[in-house]
Design brief:
With 113 residues, the protein is mainly beta. The strands form three sheets. It has a five-stranded mixed sheet, with no helix packed on it. The chain has one domain: Hypothetical Protein Tm1070, Chain: A (Sandwich), CATH 2.60.290. It is 0% helix and 42% strand.
């Protein structure tokens, strides 16, 4: 699992296409919180599913379902990575992919106020 670096977006804006890195076959992890976004670019001819693990439970034992986002072939997606996805043991969000062929990712954090 690769640890993705969080890139802070300054008030002047941020070019992110040069920040994209190959998605790791074993998954990635990233910071969580307000204003944190996972940018996914799928250059493949097939759609890919990106899954953010949700370690939360309610009523003591009911697991909250993981967030699965389908990124269409040749498309991009921006996924909020709120604190809901924070793993209490690592402090980070675990991300998996159904395939990583031509999938690149970046994490950016924008100001919330």
């Amino acid at each position: 699992m690769a640890a993705l670096t969080t890139n802070v977006v300054p008030l002047t804006g941020l070019r992110f296409d040069n920040l994209l890195t190959a998605a790791a076959g074993g998954g990635d992890d990233c910071a969580t919180g307000a204003g944190v976004l996972l940018v996914v670019s799928n250059g493949d001819a097939s759609p890919h599913t990106v899954t953010l693990a949700t370690p939360e439970t309610v009523d003591g034992d009911l697991a909250v379902a993981d967030r699965a986002v389908v990124v269409a072939a040749g498309a991009e997606a921006v996924i909020p990575v709120t604190s809901r996805y924070r793993n209490p043991s690592t402090g980070r969000c675990a991300i998996t992919y159904d395939g990583v062929t031509s999938v690149t990712v970046a994490v950016v954090r924008v100001a919330t106020s």
